[in-house]
Amino acid sequence: MTYSIAIDGPAGAGKSTIAKKIAKELGFIYVDTGAMYRAMTYFFVTEHIKKEDAGAMGRLCENADISIKYQNGEQQVFLNGENVTPYLRTEEVGNLASVVATNGDVRRKLVELQQKLAKSENVVMDGRDIGTCVLPHADLKVYLTASPKTRAARRFKELTEKNILCNIEEIENDIIDRDKRDMEREISPLRQAEDAVLVDSSDMGVEEVVSYILQLFMERK
Ligand code: CDP
In whole angstroms, what is the distance from residue 49 CA to residue 17 CA? Predict the structure, then answer.
């Protein structure tokens, strides 16, 4: 018997920061499923596959061996034996990932891997379809969101801290486009599961959100 917490929501809602802290607090592993879609995207980029070529993606995704390991509690993503984690958090990869994530073959492959992980470990898993598709029986489901302005400001801060040059209006527009793609796609669109708790973090600090979610989990388990 393993425990699982599912955290879904749009880009820049703070899912990874929150999920990491909750996992640490509970001694669970943190599974960043977005990083798996990003790794698959990185694979297609290195294979020179065009984002319009869904057929090639469907065929080639079988050649991408994606696995997750933990070093000092941090998730590392391996693609065909190589640690590709440092290449995944760029805006280019993130935006392309939301196109790759519309592909049914890619989703099937990654969902299977995610479900396997949750069977053997206690997990806090974040993404877009965790509560609705990957872990429909999660012990707690949270839909974490914030206003587009707040989310753009958070993403701007994340990138600036990494010395990546960016423009806040462009980021906000990209976030709006990406959310639209994620919410309107045919397979496993981003939406709040019926039994998920809605948390709007626009005016909440990180610690406040973490303690609220921990309290929800304690009440449920
Ligand atoms: O960190 P951020 O919210 O910007 O993005 P991410 O979680 O790294 O996910 C990148 C993209 O992968 C998303 O825009 C989704 O299109 C896709 N994704 C998905 O479809 N399903 C998931 N479970 C996780 C990510």
Answer: 32
Q: What is the CATH number of domain 1-28+122-221?
A: 3.40.50.300
Q: Is the CB of 38 under 6 A from ligand 1?
A: yes
Give the distance (Å) from ligand 1 centre to CA of residue 177: 13
The pLDDT tens digits of the residues spanning 128-139 come to 999 999 999 999
Enumerate the domain spans of the chain: 1-28+122-221, 33-121
* Residue 100 alpha carbon, nearest atom of ligand 1: 16
* Residues paired with 141 in a beta bridge: 6
Measure the CA–CA gap between 185 and 180, rounded to whole angstroms: 8
Joined together, the tokens standing for residue 79 give 């693609």
Predicted local confidence at residue 190, as pLDDT: 97
User: Is 33-121 assigned to CATH 2.60.210.10?
Assistant: no
Would the CATH topology of 1-28+122-221 be identical to that of 33-121? yes
The two structure tokens encoding residue 134: 């990957």
Q: What is the CA radius of gyration of the chain?
A: 16
> Is 131 close to ligand 1, i.e. is its CB under 6 Å away?
no
Ligand 1 centroid distance, CA of 120 (Å)? 23
- Lookup: tokens for 53: 């070529």
Tell me what the mean pLDDT of segment 115-135 comes to: 97
Of ligand 1's atoms, which has the minimum distance to the CA of residue 182?
16
Q: Is 11 in the pocket of ligand 1 (CB under 6 A)?
A: yes
Q: Tell me the β-bridge partners of 197.
A: 142
